[in-house]
């Protein structure tokens, strides 16, 4: 086995998961700039311009509310009884994070089982060459719920960026044998 190519692949996966994690967070001017300069072409193909206001409105409508959002981005909603946030699945991912001496960033106002946080954690695992742990976390957490979430995003969104992001995320979380980083 070629250790250099394995490390390069893990670095690519780490970077890819970090990019996806950022894309699932609340949109800002940096995200818009990355889309418009082509830095996110592999995530959002054929999208040349976007409006920050439009992205923020759609983000809020899909994932936040004010009414019940059509696509809650939290594992616990899909896997815990009654769809409650901060339940057993949230605690399970926090246990994973703490086992690597990680805590969710207090600057990021998302719950520990938010899609962006879980993808960011996968990026950290790959960056630290923890491939087996990443595979296990993928099987125990993201692959158990993200498919349903991504389908809901595709059905509910009016914004091409989020439809493209759902498609790219789905390709990336497929079994590792067929995964290509964004």
Automatic annotation (TrEMBL):
Record's keyword terms, sorted: Chaperone
Q: Does the keyword DNA-binding apply?
A: no
Q: Which InterPro entries match?
A: DMSO/NO3_reduct_chaperone, TorD-like_sf, TorD/DmsD_chaperones
Q: Keyword Secreted on this protein?
A: no
Q: Which domain of life is it from?
A: Archaea
PANTHER family xref list: CHAPERONE PROTEIN YCDY, DIMETHYL SULFOXIDE REDUCTASE CHAPERONE-RELATED
Name of the protein: Cytoplasmic chaperone TorD family protein
Query: From which source organism is this entry?
Result: Halapricum salinum
